[in-house]
Design a protein that fits this description.
Number of strands: 0
Number of domains: 2
Number of helices: 12
Distance between the termini: 40 Å
Structural class: mainly alpha
C-alpha cells in the first residue's frame, strides 16, 4: 500500500505537463531512461566468467545496466549541457539516484549488486580522472546493499526534488490530484521521522544527504498551507506527521547550531 502511494504520486508527476517542464529531476531521469542497453565499448562491464561458489547466481541483466551507465557517463557532459536547467553537479546526483532506482527495480541478488558497485566505482573514477570532463560523479556514490535503506534513500531524494512543485500546486489550488499529493507528502513525512529516530540512535551514513536535504529545504516552510489543504477526514494523520517532522527539524537545527 505504501509503495502504491509513492508510485501513484510519481506517475501523476510524470504526466503533469507543466511539472515535467519545471522538474530538473524528471528531465534528467527521462534522459537516462532514453539510454537503451547498447554493446559496451570497453571490457569494464565484462561479466563474471568464473564463480567460485556454485550457489551464487549472477544476473546477466545487470551487465546491461552497467553498459548503460558506461554510455551515459561517456555523454554526460553533453546531456547535462543540452538544457540550461541541468548543472553538472546536480546531473551527477540525478545519475546516481537513477542508478539506485534501476537496482531496486532489478531485484538483483547481493552478489550481482556487489559486482555492479565495483564496476560503477571504476567507471566513475575513470570519468573523474579525465581532465576534459566537467561532471565529476564520485563524491556522493554509496554502496548500499540493504534494499529497504536504498529505497528509502531514493524516495526521500525524489521527494525533495519534487516538493517545491507539489507545494505550489497545493498552495494555488490548481490541479485535480490534491488527495494523491497529500497522501504522498504524509507518507514521506512519516518515513522521514522514523528514519531520523534510527539515524539519531545509530548514525546511518546512507541517509546523510537526505537528512541534510530535509533540514535545508523544509526548516522554514509554512506548514499551515499543508494543514489547510491536506487535512480532511480521509487524511487525518497528516497533522500528526507534520508535527513530528517539525519537531524533528527543530531538534536538528539545535544540534547544528552547537557545532
Amino acid at each position: 500500500m505504501n509503495s502504491d502511494i509513492v508510485e501513484k504520486a510519481l506517475d501523476l508527476l510524470k504526466h503533469d505537463v507543466d511539472l515535467s517542464k519545471k522538474s530538473k529531476l524528471h528531465l534528467a531521469y527521462e534522459k537516462f531512461n532514453e539510454q537503451k542497453s547498447l554493446t559496451c565499448e570497453s571490457e569494464k562491464c565484462s561479466k563474471v566468467k568464473y564463480v567460485l561458489n556454485p550457489d551464487t547466481q549472477f544476473n546477466k541483466k545487470i551487465v546491461d545496466l552497467c553498459c548503460r551507465v558506461e554510455n551515459i557517463l561517456k555523454n554526460l557532459d553533453t546531456s547535462c549541457s543540452e538544457d540550461d536547467e541541468l548543472d553538472h553537479n546536480n546531473c551527477c546526483d540525478y545519475l546516481l539516484y537513477w542508478l539506485y532506482g534501476e537496482i531496486i527495480k532489478g531485484e538483483y541478488n547481493s552478489f550481482s549488486i556487489h559486482w555492479l558497485y565495483d564496476k560503477i566505482q571504476t567507471l566513475l573514477e575513470e570519468n573523474n580522472s579525465n581532465s576534459n570532463k566537467k561532471a565529476k560523479c564520485n563524491e556522493n556514490f554509496m554502496r548500499i546493499f540493504d534494499m529497504e535503506k536504498l529505497n528509502n534513500k531514493k524516495i526521500l531524494f525524489d521527494f525533495l526534488s519534487y516538493y517545491d512543485s507539489i507545494y505550489e500546486i497545493l498552495r494555488t489550488g490548481i490541479g485535480e490530484n490534491k488527495k494523491e499529493y497529500c497522501q504522498y507528502i504524509d507518507f514521506i513525512f512519516y518515513i522521514y521521522s522514523n528514519i531520523h529516530k534510527e539515524y539519531q540512535s545509530i548514525k546511518i551514513k546512507a541517509y546523510d544527504n537526505e537528512i541534510n536535504g530535509f533540514q535545508k529545504k523544509l526548516q522554514d516552510y509554512d506548514y499551515t498551507i499543508l494543514k489547510s489543504k491536506c487535512f480532511d477526514s480521509s487524511q487525518n494523520t497528516i497533522l500528526k506527521h507534520i508535527n513530528a517532522l517539525t519537531q524533528t527539524l527543530n531538534v536538528e537545527q539545535k544540534e547544528y547550531s552547537k557545532k
